Amino acid sequence: MNVKTPGKDPYNIIITGVGGQGNVMASRILANMLVEKGFDVTIGETFGASQRGGSVMSHIRVSRMGTWSPQIPEGRADIVAALEPIESFRVLARYGNPSVRVLANTRPIYPATVIAGESSYPELTEIRELIEKLSARAWFLDITGEALKLGNPILSNIMMIGALSALEDIPLDREDFAKVIARTFPEGKREDNMRSFDLGLEMMRSA
Amino acid sequence: MSYLHEMKEGDSALLMGNEAIVRGALEAGVKVAAGYPGTPSSEIIEGLAKAASGLNIYVEWSVNEKVAMEVAAAASFARLRSICAMKQNGVNVASDFLLHLVGSGVRGGMVLVFCDDPGALSSVNEGDARFFSRLMEMPLLEPGDFQEAKDMTAWAFELSEELKQIVMLRSVTRLSHASGKVTFGPLSDAEGVAEFRFGGDFLDPDEGLMASFPVDWKHRRQQEKVARAREIFETSRFNTYEGPERPELLMITASGCNLYCREAINSLGLEDRVGLLKLGTTWPLPVKLLTKHLSSTDRVMIVEEILPFLEENVKIIAAERAREIGVKTFFGKSEGVFPMMGELNPDLVMAALVSAMGIDCAPPCPEYLETARRTASVAAPVRDQVLCPGCPHRASFFSIRRAMEMDGRRGFVCGDIGCYYMGIRPSGFDAAKTLHSMGSGTGLASGFGKLERFGMIQPAMSVCGDSTFYHAAIPAIINAVHNNSNITIMVLDNKGTAMTGFQPHPGLDHNIMGEEAPEVNLEKICRAIGARVEIRDPFDLEETRETINELMACPDGVKVLILRQVCALSPDRKNIRNFIMKVDENICLGEECGCGRFCTRVFRCPGLIWDKEKGKALIDEVICVGCGVCADICPSQAIRKEEAAQG
Fold it and tell me: Which CATH architecture has domain A11-205?
């Protein structure tokens, strides 16, 4: 692995979001792309009841040394990819550290308590400031907005993978993505996914 | 998961624990698989079904776990290898048959896979089903990683055949739903020929009766099998030790905790001081192996989730052998080192190790984490689980709650598990006031309905889902009818076992193998039992509410109201919007209306949000699925629905 941070094994990625955003699918695709590169990958995730609009989180551990715990220890995340912006905070509160990097989709999904007026959702500018304070580097992309232009907000998760592939220290590349989605999706859906991947990558490069 | 039977010997892949179990069963040449859906176990039967057509395997979703075990046992009696799979509380449902099955023994290798859910991530209980192995005197295996999930499953069939006894294999959420690297063995090419032999002496295990009778004879054989299993386990390759010959501390663990222990030892650099005994065979315990390792040190830490099952069984051995091995200091649950509930994780194991070893180890970046926690507590409002946008149950519970309020006698709903558990939460309008096991709401209502003579005037109702109806509610309805209990039962029929991933059930016209299947008609069953049956579309709020009020007011007998509407997440419905929803800003009076933001404060559909700037309701186009129900709740009729173009 071209990991630039030396001694980082396992390398810990967390993908977070809200049930229904395709978190599990994103973590599987990402993990299988890394398997294509010859890494031993362990994924930890919960689903079931958590699909019902709750917070969801996948832990992806990338190693040359075999299987790791499917739960990352406290303070040990290297990258946090948030499909919903405030979910970053829940992850950073437990797994963050001063050198963590965060890639956040800016489109909110309001919790029921916010919709009901019982709690408030922070403004995007505030979210950005707080995430920037809690990370070594942060990127904010309107991924869902672009996915809507493509015609389907569910493609946000694939765009997130494309965006992550712009980071140099994780060897995620387009060819591996193509291989993995060829196994994962029926032919008719592959083109949309390739376009989403490319768009995510492009958004990140121009961010 | 079709690739599970296409992968060749020596290939590796990233597999979920449940997929590894599927592959293990395929390598063992399993012929029959049966189960009932339940998170985190459902992918096992689903995975076997995907492989079934290419391999001549029979797979079914059975009506409940007990019948699933009976179906799998029949195959074993006919000398085929069989598997049944369920979640932890499913073993309770199957346990009556299991108690007798362990007496009769089996013929073809038979494996019961159960998936515990420490931390109740997808359950309303934290049952620890390992205890069944000791209670029912049968062997228990616990894989410690993904590779073992495959290897041990395959071996469990051999063990079962050697012992002529069913073997339990336990997984947990963090193995079943986690993924890791698995290297494949060869698929079995054994042909399965089914024959049930019964012509021999009636005590002959291969050609006699399959029964737990005569009990004294069969119980003795059963205990001999446990003793034999113990011998086999003494040298099992699934019990491994890593560490120094005489460790300062011996850790004993099993299952997913194996990975937490490894990470903790590795992170703290304790490889030369701490030994890790990972057990794959956890009942009966290999006494000689444990005696050997317990002799190597005076300090023993036992790491497992939920109850101290392993811990107590190890302590019994330590007490029995105390003269030989000396007195031990234990670090376990009884000592308060680990909790008797919830999940463990690497941090909890590390903290226990740091304390037991008296080492100085500061957690990483405590100040950062303190700041991050404070930030999250302010900037990340709680995200309570909710019914999905467009969920028919939101509409059903909304009408139920309104009907109860209009009825005015403080009526209540006895709830059920699955998505219906939301009935006890604000998303289900707090309509349900009890929540236990599958079908229990209806049994409880049947009981409440008989309390009139003691002065109870509150009308009792129950809800259950369509799959639960077949699984466990039918006997409760029969009970209520026969005992003349005055109740209303609402079957929220969303056409599938939705919570666990749309598995088919007996009310549908197809089965898991993708074949057409006779539909066992829900309303006909209820009518045949003698209940009054009404069927409504819950999306018609007013008619549903009126019907519930009428049924509540009906003074006698059992009333069944079927509220039928396909689940919003159903593959049959997904991505099809019936309506394009819009809030007419000219009509919505917002905060000025006097409705108190009824649509967002009370109805709480995630697709209907509040525009802070305008002070008016707003449809979130990303979230809304266009069910159209909210158009009927706005007192000003500001929420508009337009038929969506289909295509």
Answer: 3-Layer(aba) Sandwich (3.40)
Paired residues of A141 in beta bridges: A105
Q: What's residue B2's pLDDT? A: 53
Q: Which of B529, B564, B599 is the last residue of a domain?
A: B564
Amino acid identity of A171? P
Cα-only R_g, chain A: 16
Distance from A121 to chain B by nearest Cα, in Å? Answer: 7
CB contacts, 8 Å: A42 with chain B: 178-181, 259
CB-defined contacts A:B, below 8 A? 207
Note whether residue B226 is domain-resident: yes
User: What average pLDDT does the segment B150-166 reach?
Assistant: 98
Q: Are residues B424 and B463 in the same domain?
A: yes
Residue contact A153–B382, C-beta within 8 A = no
pLDDT at A1 > cutoff 50: no
The per-residue pLDDT for B184 is: 97
Cα of B255 vs its chain's centroid, Å: 17
Min Cα–Cα distance to chain A from B108, Å: 33
Strand duo B240-242 + B274-278: pairing: antiparallel
Is residue B443 within 8 Å of B476, Cβ to Cβ? Answer: yes
Q: What is the largest CA-CA distance in chain A?
A: 49
Nearest residue of A to residue B172 by CA position? A46
User: Quick one: B635 exposed, middle or buried, by C-beta within 10 A (0-12, 13-18, 19+)?
Assistant: exposed
Residue B383 forms part of a structural domain = no
How is residue B106 written in tokens?
């089996």
Contact between A115 and B610 using a beta-carbon 8 Å cutoff:
yes
> What's the pLDDT band for B647 if we cut at 50, 70, 90?
low
**In this structure, are strands B240-242 and B281-283 parallel, antiparallel, or unpaired?**
unpaired
Chain B residues closer than 8 Å to A44 by CB = 174, 178
Per-residue pLDDT at B574: 65
Question: What's the Cα-to-Cα distance from B296 to each of B244, B280, B291, B335, rounded to whole Å?
Answer: 9, 20, 9, 21
Q: What is the domain partition of chain A in residue ranges? A: 11-205
**Residue B323: Cβ within 10 Å count:** 7
Using a CB–CB cutoff of 8 Å, tell me whether B190 touches chain A.
no
Of all helices (H) and strands (E), which one includes residue B275?
strand B274-278
User: Are A46 and B623 a contacting pair at CB < 8 A?
Assistant: no
Could you tell me the CATH number of the domain that includes residue B162? 3.40.50.970
pLDDT digits (tens, 9 = 90+) for A50-84: 567 789 999 999 999 999 999 999 999 999 999 99
Please give the average per-residue pLDDT across B172-192, as a whole number: 95
Predicted confidence (pLDDT) at residue A49 exceeds the cutoff of 70: no
Helix (H, G, I), strand (E, B) or coil at B643: strand
Cis peptide before B363 (omega within 30 of 0): no
Number of domains observed in the structure of chain B = 4
Query: Does the interface ipTM go beyond 0.90?
Result: yes
**Given an 8 Å threshold on Cβ–Cβ distance, is A116 in contact with B604?**
yes
**For residue range B443-497, what is the model confidence (pLDDT) as tens digits?**
999 999 999 999 999 999 999 999 999 999 999 999 999 999 999 999 999 998 8
Closest CA to A14 of A109, A112, A88: A88
* Interchain CB contact of B13 with A (< 8 Å): yes
Return the sign of the alpha-carbon dihedral for residues A36, A41, A42, A44.
negative
Range of the domain at B248: 240-357
Q: Quick check: B291 contacting A, CB < 8 Å? A: no
Which residues of A fall within a CB distance of 8 Å from B179?
A: 28, 31, 41-43, 70
Name the residue among B147, B263, B372 with its Cβ closest to that of A69. B263
Q: Which residue of A has its CA nearest to B264?
A: A73
Q: Mark which of B506, B534, B564 sits at the end of a domain.
A: B564
Model pLDDT, residue A47: 62
pLDDT digits (tens, 9 = 90+) for A132-182: 999 999 999 999 999 999 888 999 999 999 999 999 889 999 999 999 999
